[in-house]
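ok, trying the design again with the full structure, not the truncated one.
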């Protein structure tokens, strides 16, 4: 077995010639052992960095979700007349189609919760009149 490995390396030397110091065979003139090692280290650092970024993004999204849930709870406790969909719309958490137009972010009040009728004013020749008049 050892003789076969030696004969393979001898055959390789005969075909490709004497090995030049500092270079790696079959990689071209500008590739050295050091550059290959450096490239491997850089790739390992990039992989570690991308894993760290993925972990941090996941943690960040989890914190955002918890804060939004806490905010929804506080808003719902302070304003029980506002429904949960309105709060989600306010936070931009609408569950509609992504291609649909953005919804109005103002909370929608039920007509039964309103005790005050708004007075819509109309302008007639620089004077304002109330609709109920």
């Amino acid at each position: 077995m050892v003789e076969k490995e030696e004969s393979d390396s001898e055959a390789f030397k005969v075909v490709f010639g004497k090995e030049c110091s500092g270079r790696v065979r079959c990689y071209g003139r500008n590739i050295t052992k050091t550059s290959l090692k450096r490239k491997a280290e850089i790739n390992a650092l990039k992989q570690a960095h991308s894993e760290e970024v993925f972990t941090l993004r996941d943690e960040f999204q989890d914190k955002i979700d918890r804060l939004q849930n806490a905010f929804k709870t506080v808003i719902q406790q302070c304003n029980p007349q506002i429904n949960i969909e309105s709060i989600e719309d306010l936070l931009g958490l609408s569950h509609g189609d992504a291609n649909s137009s953005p919804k109005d972010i103002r909370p929608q009040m039920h007509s039964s919760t309103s005790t005050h009728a708004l007075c819509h004013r109309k302008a007639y020749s620089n004077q304002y009149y109330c609709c109920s008049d």
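Keeping the full-length input from now on. The chain has three helices and two strands.
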